Amino acid sequence: MTKSRVGRSLIRPCLFLAVIVLIVLKLQMVWAINNPGPQSGSIGLEGTISSSPPSRGAVIAIPTNGSTFTSIPITVSGLCPSGLLVEVFDNNILVGSMVCSNGSYSIQIDLFNGQNTLVTNVYDALNQAGPSSNSVNVNFNSTQFSQFGTQLTLSSAYAEKGAPPGIQLNWPIVINGGTAPYALSVDWGDNSSTDLISEANAGAVNLTHTYRSAGIYTITIRATDKNGETAFLQLVGQATGAIQSNSKNTNAATTTKEEIQWWPAVALLPLIFIAFWAGTKHELDVIHKRYSGNS
Fold it and tell me: Are 207 and 170 in contact (CB under 8 A)?
């Protein structure tokens, strides 16, 4: 009879323990719902750590000072710090650019008729300039200039421009001089078909292209006017970020990873055992008193 009473009395603390466990699990579920992990469509923060500007610039090795040319484009090459953007300036005007690779660069540029002063500048990812290169003076004797009286040139305010893969890149350039109309060919450097563009007048032209893969590309722009005079411009295009999907499946489901956080339950375990011990001790005390009374 006493053992039966003890068994029935222990049911209460067990039920009490079960209720506590259910409460803890419920609290844990509520916490998980109110504190979800990263999901599709969440916003991430991206920062740039400041650094010192480049301490070393590029060097012009070719052409040599005092060289004379009768045809264009010519090649400007030399040494440079790898990974930096190298820009070539002719008489303080941007005429070409590329990203330094393996410690060297080679850029094709046009020259102005007469004397040309060539200088290169380097820039890091934060657009901080390094020291300017040595200055090289060369001459260009244009037979076309003397024949038609005006030289055809291409210019751009941007040495480097980029957009994420799958997003259209817009690049404004300017056609100067020459005799209209003009024919433009643009090689975007990604093995895509060359763009062929006809322009009736000199002035601003907006070039557009969409890169499919992330990377750095050498853009080559050529212009030819009515008289066959040519101009050349080499620039750097960047496709930044992840490759975008071209999938047409608009009904695809978004998968969300849920992670159960167990720390609330773990933190309450000591309280559960204390409550269980206290409840059991109380019931045993009650049974003991009843048993003593019946005796």
Answer: yes
